[in-house]
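As noted in the main text, all predictions were made from sequence alone. Below is one such record, for Tetratricopeptide repeat protein.
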Amino acid sequence: MGARIMYFVMAAFLVVWFVLVGGRGVALIRQGTAVTVVLGAAALVLPAIGVWFLWMNTRFVTRANRLAGELEAEGGLPVDELRRTPDGRIDRDSADEVFARRRAETEAAPDDWRCWFRLAVAYRDARDTPRARKAMQRAIALHDKRPAAP
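Prediction:
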């Protein structure tokens, strides 16, 4: 629950920032000189990119959470079987062992979104965030029956 609250706090902060920067961009454009118009237009591009990025991430998180809820209802969420270091971090060898099992499971059933979801969790536990995201995107695409990117 704490991560969700933090996500919304950060999203609200970003929206306020987008509005402030956009307002400055409009003010610069209204001044009408060549330099201020160019700077104002550039200032408007940043919030536009930020809104797009925030929208894509929110959509991704919403879909991933929907899959997690569905998998939980089925009793198929991965069990946390990882060893931890004394300071609470995931033991790297333990994460690698679980990852190897999840990868084999996914290779045996490449069209099962559940396997890809569990693989994404294993990637995250192994601290490989880019691959975790791609695996989760694949799980979402398979669940929604859309063609998945390789």
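Residues 34-74 form the longest helix (41 residues). The chain is about 75% helix and 0% strand. These features were considered when defining construct boundaries for the mutagenesis experiments described in Section 2.9.
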